[in-house]
Amino acid sequence: MHLVAIAFAGGLGALARYSLTGITHRFAAGDFPVGTLLVNTLGCLVLGIITPLLAERAHLPEHYRMGVMIGFLGSFTTFSTFGFDTVDFVQAGQWSKAALNVGASLLLGLGAVMVGIAIATKIDG
Fold this sequence. Notes:
Blueprint: H1 2-27, H2 34-56, H3 62-76, H4 79-91, H5 95-124
Helix pairs in contact: 1-2, 1-3, 2-3, 2-5, 4-5
């Protein structure tokens, strides 16, 4: 059952990432990977929210947790694309864009996790 949940949710996460990055790239000017930054930040926020909430709700079947966290969020977020984009900037001599991508990804990602945990704490009271 775990594999089915992970595969199903993974498919949904991949489709959500594809859709959101596509929409973002239509509106974002330039070659900065705004879509990747957005999905990774949203993934961090959602993980920060659901991890504490799911830990408190032990009555949920394990395959639900695995489906959401490994399947959906694992396919929604994309560290490999972040890495590729950053190296691509470096190879093109665009060091400022590479540094901005690394800095923004770390700050926004970690900040989103902290905000997510704070939201979960408020929800759980």
